[in-house]
Amino acid sequence: MLYELITLSSPPMEQDAVSAGAHNWVLDGEGQLLGAWRTEIGELFQIKLLRGFETAEALERERLRALMSARPFGVDDPSSRLITEQYARFPFLPDVERSSFGRFYEFRTYHLKPGGLPPTLAGWEQAIGPAHDYTRHLVINMYALDGSPRITHIWGFSSLEERAALRARHYAEGLWPPKGGPQQIARATSTICIPEAYSPLG
């Protein structure tokens, strides 16, 4: 499965309308809506959608539909911004499953140094099993198929306190981060989101 991550930046206090428009857009198209969120900590007034596609052709058709539309994803305010990104999952991880991971979802994007993806993949593959108590909260980790070299991983937690406690324990025990991973990061961002009512991942 291939993945598309859509980020819609709306005017302040207009997330409800933007989210509804984006939801209607994906219902009319191809692919499978896997999750929908709004930002809570980080850059605010954003809606994020994650879609899965069985084929590259289906993903490309949806990208073309957005490019050729006057109102892609229902966006009709010139001050709104739309970013679409294409990803493939790490090959040793399962595809996203519809489930409830908790109230808080973290989106972490690591922009990698040139050549940084192979050692990142190797480190993650070795770390996933031993760090199971932490990595069972991992929704997906993906590497970008467009733009600069980067990975985006999505995590779900019942609370921010749960997230902090798990990270602190796994760091202290040397189980996290994956060996060699931090050395490949050029810069990183983290955003905390909460799921929309219609999100399959809730």
Strand content: 25-35%
What's the pLDDT, averaged over the residues?
96
- Here the CATH topology of the largest domain equals Alpha-Beta Plaits
First-to-last CA distance: 21 Å
In helices, the fraction of residues equals 25-40%
Placed side by side, the strands forming the largest sheet appear as 1-3-2-8-5-7-6-4
Structure class: alpha+beta
Task: Kindly describe this structure.
This protein has 202 residues and is an alpha+beta fold. The protein has 2 domains: 2-88, Alpha-Beta Plaits, CATH 3.30.70; 94-195, Alpha-Beta Plaits, CATH 3.30.70. It is 27% helix and 35% strand. It has 5 helices and 8 strands; from the N terminus they run βαββαββααββαβ. The protein has helices spanning 15-27, 56-67, 117-128, 132-135, 160-172, and strands spanning 2-9, 32-41, 46-53, 81-89, 104-112, 138-144, 150-157, 185-195. It has an 8-stranded antiparallel barrel. A hairpin with a 4-residue loop joins strand 2 and strand 3 (46-53). The longest helix is centred in the first third of the chain and has 13 residues, at 15-27. The chain is globular.
Strand-helix topology:
Elements: E1 2-9, H1 15-27, E2 32-41, E3 46-53, H2 56-67, E4 81-89, E5 104-112, H3 117-128, H4 132-135, E6 138-144, E7 150-157, H5 160-172, E8 185-195
Antiparallel strand pairs: 1-3, 1-4, 2-3, 2-8, 4-6, 5-7, 5-8, 6-7
